[in-house]
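PROTEIN DESIGN WORKSHEET
SECTION A - STRUCTURE
LENGTH: 47
TOKENS:
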């Protein structure tokens, strides 16, 4: 019974960690895109 419980806990943690890493990757991508767009807008406004 302990082996099954440990297996379930480890599988749950691995799924949680993979979901978080995908989310973090998306956040970094969106932030980079927003930064580049803002930088271009400021450059165009001051040019």
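SECTION B - SEQUENCE
RESIDUE ASSIGNMENT:
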């Amino acid at each position: 019974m302990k082996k099954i419980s440990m297996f379930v806990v480890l599988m749950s943690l691995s799924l949680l960690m993979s979901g978080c890493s995908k989310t973090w990757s998306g956040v970094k991508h969106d932030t980079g895109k927003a930064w580049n767009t803002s930088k271009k807008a400021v450059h165009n406004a001051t040019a």
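SECTION C - NOTES
The CA atoms of residues 24 and 30 lie 10 Å apart.
The mean pLDDT is 80.
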